[in-house]
Amino acid sequence: xxxxxxGRWTPAWTLGLVLFLATLVRGVVAAKLDLSPDEAYxxxxxxxxxxxxxxxxxxxxxxxxxxxxxxxxxxxxxxLPALLLSVVSVWALFxxxxxxxxxxxxxxxxxxxxxxxPLMAVGSIIHTPDAALSAAWAWALVFAMDAMRKNRWRxxxxxxxxxxxxxxxxxxxxxxLPGLGLFVLTSKAGRDRLMGVGPVLAVxxxxxxxxxxxxxxxxHGGQSLGFQWAHVFGELRFRPLGVLxxxxxxxxxxxxxxxxxxxVFWFTGWRRGVRFGxxxxxxxxxxxxxxxxxxxxxxxxxxxxxxxxxxxxxxxLPGMAWALLGGGxxxxxxxxxxxxxxxxxLVTTLIVHAHALSPFLPLPADRDPTARLRGWKELSIQxxxxxxxxxxxxxxxxxxxxxxxxxYSQRSVAxxxxxxxxxxxxxxxxxxxxxxxxxxxxxxxxxKPRRCQGNQxxxxxxxxxxxxxxxxxxxxxxxxx
Length: 481
Description:
By secondary structure, the protein is mainly alpha-helical. The chain folds into two domains: 2-357, no CATH class; 375-474. It is 64% helix and 6% strand. It contains 22 helices and five strands. It has a five-stranded mixed sheet, covered by helices on one side. Helix 1 packs parallel to helix 5 (104-116), helix 5 runs parallel beside helix 19 and helix 13 (242-254) crosses helix 14. It is globular.
């Protein structure tokens, strides 16, 4: 028995070592890349701790605030929570798969496959609300599986805590509740647990944790939830190639072979034999299958961003292993498939990382997502130098540029409203205390900056950054050549 137990721990230790090394490498990459506009935006949130923000619940701001307080003002400190949370998510994925297939070695390979995907790799470096959402979602599945199997109060409590933390991370966490509800209502195992106090405890704890943010939402007229609703359903129109775009994007971010294997699970995990014979597998299907179908349908009417379905893979990847081991089909040459899937996923991820650090792919700037991670330091240095030479204050249009300038200049940067996108800055307008302004405006804008309307201005195009038009407004000294 001792040797058997030792053997079961070997995959866990192997996975732990790989995660440690991967986190070190990703930490180096995270320290070298400029913050994305969204990351800089969340950093500005962390300068004023609130119970909620215009775009998302407060978890991402709280985590960035704690990390930068402890480790200083730098890119790595902003991204460190995402690095650590990715480890938490992958470890939960290992636990889910091990419970489902009862094979620690298979669980290890599933976790390694997940860790190698571009979606997980990028999500562990770029800090967005998805980092905390994924960790909470994954552990909610761990506790839900244990609660359905053993019906212990501590498992229901853990489920409630995970759900509550997810609701503090991102509004998408609400999608987990209908998935769990579908399982409870359509499976015997779920209905048996519905009769106890466990589900009531889980829901109560989840809502108790989410209550401060919900109170903030009520106080602000539900603006955050309303914004997210409009972001998803605001401009629906028929897109003939939308479904193909969605499938291609998902195959790219999760890796083609892994995505095909997930599709096998989604096609087989809902069958009657699974509902009554393998409730754990059906639970994973209920928390992934309906949502991937929903996103697929939505893609024909709206552009679905590649990261929106990210949480569903936390259930689909363990389900994939179960399906390929006889649950839906039987994969005969498992080692070959794992080698090909892991190799393809790693190559894609390495290319993405290498291009982000040193661009080499022939991509135009408007189609290169890594372009958002370059040039902000240089832009800030130039803006500070010109503002000082002119004797004016700095301002910029849109939440992204103003946040980048604020982070890298460590100065107060005034916000120019954007006609197409409201943000947290619109909820907290600042009074103008300067008589002269250097305003950076994206070249895509079609109107004169508000601070330049009715004021003396001189249009100045920056020779070093083609993304912005530079306005000098108000009473400003003549710029030095």
